[in-house]
Design a protein that fits this description.
Elements lengths: L2 H29 L6 H24 L2 H25 L11 H34 L2
Helix pairs in contact: 1-2, 1-4, 2-3, 3-4
Length: 135
Amino acid sequence: MTRVRSDIASLVIVAALHLAIGGVHQYAHAVAEVENSPLQVLFIVLVVTIAPWAAILFAWRRNLTVGAALFSASMLASLVVGLALHFAVESPDLHSNVVPEYRTLFLHSALGLALMEFIGFVIGAYAAVRRRYAA
């Protein structure tokens, strides 16, 4: 497998896992009755869901470096917003404000998303810069 194919495969695996964990987290939102604001829904749809897959498509069809950088940026944006909303900012989305019956599912799915977003950021950034420094 070539480096390009390997990098794209890594991005696809991270994006698929991120999407699956995101589905679990959206389920946690639904059962815990934690609604997202219209702005949050827009962010989730565009940045969290569509942007990583669009970046992978760009990396595959056009330019790996730019696509991987866009992937990394979408993962970083998702990570920063997710950490703020789930762990820092006082809101219904704060993990400690979720009803006790669903708090564990909500917390663990939020942590899973944060982990995948961090991994996605690192893998995307690595794929974006490693071609520059390859011999």
